[in-house]
Amino acid sequence: MAVGDISTPKTMFAIDGVKLSTTAAGVRYQNRDDLVVVEIAEGSSTAAVTTKNAFCAAPVHILREHIEQAAPRYLVINTGNANAGTGADGRARAEAVCQALAQKAGVADNAVLPFSTGVIGEPLNSQAIIDGLDKALANLSADGWLAAANGIRTTDTIPKAASEQVVIDDTTYHISGISKGSGMIRPNMATMLGFVATDADIAPATLQAMLSKINEQTFNRITVDGDTSTNDCCVLIATKAVTTDLGVIDSEHHPHYPALFASLQSVFLRLAQLIVRDGEGATKFITVKVTGGKTSTECCDVAYSVAHSPLVKTAFFASDANWGRILAAVGYAGLEDLDTEQVNVYLDEVMICQNGGLAPEYSESCGDTVMSRPEITIHIDLGRGDASDTVYTCDLSYDYVKINADYRS
Predict the structure, then answer these.
(1) What angle, rounded to 10 degrees, do the helices at 204-217 and 257-277 form?
(2) Is the dihedral of CA 392, 397, 402, 405 positive or negative?
(3) What is the largest CA-CA distance in the chain?
(4) DSSP 8-state symbol, 227
(5) What are the backbone angles phi and psi of residue 219, rounded to the nearest 5°?
(6) Cα(358)–Cα(355) distance, rounded to whole angstroms?
(7) Active-site position among 51, 191, 230, 283
(8) Distance CA 136, CA 75 (A)
(9) CA neighbours within 13 Å on the CB side: how many for 153?
(10) pLDDT tens per residue, range 255-267
(11) Could you give the count of Cα atoms lying within 13 Å of 365 in the half-sphere of its Cβ?
């Protein structure tokens, strides 16, 4: 079950220059949408970040090459099969999909970016994808965002979508995006899969810089189980449909940059948090906030140490205020010269640890009250600097084990 606000937007703004189509190709399962095609208008800017997993999937290799060679015109996304751990055969099958779509759409092969998600180590049913392309191309629509959000799901129990409109100096920009992911989540340079588009006129280099910066504070600040996927990819598209007398947004000094950046970050953060809220078997949404660090890096190290601890995560599932597990995770995060007597820890508003020991005012009843909540913030104050950072995670339940034990069944 998903936790908290998992609603889809009442309005998914169409992005002038982007069309989407979703269909059932039978890649792994029958009668289930599993193929999404996205058409990008000529002249658009496209940026991408991809997984750092050394066993990255064949489509990731191809994406990296194609986006350096040509401006992307089409994205092709399949679920049910990750096409990872498949060697030369996997690459040949992904290339065949790109070539087929390129031929049918009348673009160069390297103008197609492929994406796959699903089971690792099994041959991709590329023919099923190719056979589904005609129907996908025939049904492209600017209003296809929510259908696509459903079409890229694997173990996700909900579609993940976000959309915003921002008005800057009488200019109206739109942003829409979708993501997928529920397990094998600890992104490293990307999310499981994420696709965001805006109609703003943003230069390619600036768009890439924006994506890298936003991604670092959103998708790269979530974890479900600490596993970095072989297929993580995130794409940001700027179609340039909305222009102004101020010219292209080509640096952070452009008057429209700050507000547009903030809106893009808001969409990305919503998509990232939806992944955690829909974490496999999750019953709690947990924010791990670390303050008082020397650097944001060490704050992140502490936050992830706590967020990845199976003992911490199972305690939250049990609603057990076993705060010693949090201290243990802080202690093994690897910080040099950590003065534990300066550390304070809170569960929401309740101080559980003061100066490295049990807070004098703490009681088990206070801890139990907080732990019964579906959304909880762990605040760890290291007391050694001014840096801070935040990571989002979930608990670890029986259902997580069941879902992943049965995944290939």
Answers:
(1) 40
(2) positive
(3) 71
(4) P
(5) -65, -30
(6) 8
(7) 191
(8) 12
(9) 20
(10) 999 999 999 999 9
(11) 1
- What is the CATH number assigned to the segment(s) 285-405? 3.10.20.340
Yes or no: domain 18-277 corresponds to CATH 3.60.70.12:
yes
According to DSSP, residue 380 is labeled E
Pairing label, strands 193-200, 344-347: unpaired
Q: Which amino acid is at 366?
A: C
- Render the burial of 208-236: b for 16+ CB within 10 Å, e for the rest: bebbbebbeebbbbbbbbeebbbbbbbbb
Beta-bridged to residue 375, according to DSSP, are: 285
pLDDT one-digit tens code per residue, 163-220: 999 999 999 999 999 999 988 778 876 668 999 999 999 999 999 999 999 999 999 9
**Residue burial 114-146, b: 16+ Cβ < 10 Å; e: rest:** bbbbbbbebebbbebbbebbeebbeebebebbb
Residues of the chain with CATH 3.10.20.340: 285-405
* Average of per-residue pLDDT across 206-235: 94
Strand partners, 81: 117, 119
Q: Are 334 and 353 in contact (CB under 8 A)?
A: no
Residue 195 in contact with residue 63, Cβ under 8 Å? no
Of 135, 400, 388, 108, the closest CA to residue 282 belongs to 400
Is 230 annotated in the active site? Answer: no
Tokens 């057990």 — which residue? Answer: 320
The structure tokens listed for 32 are 């289930």
Amino acid at 333: A
Cα 9 to Cα 53: distance, rounded to the nearest angstrom: 32
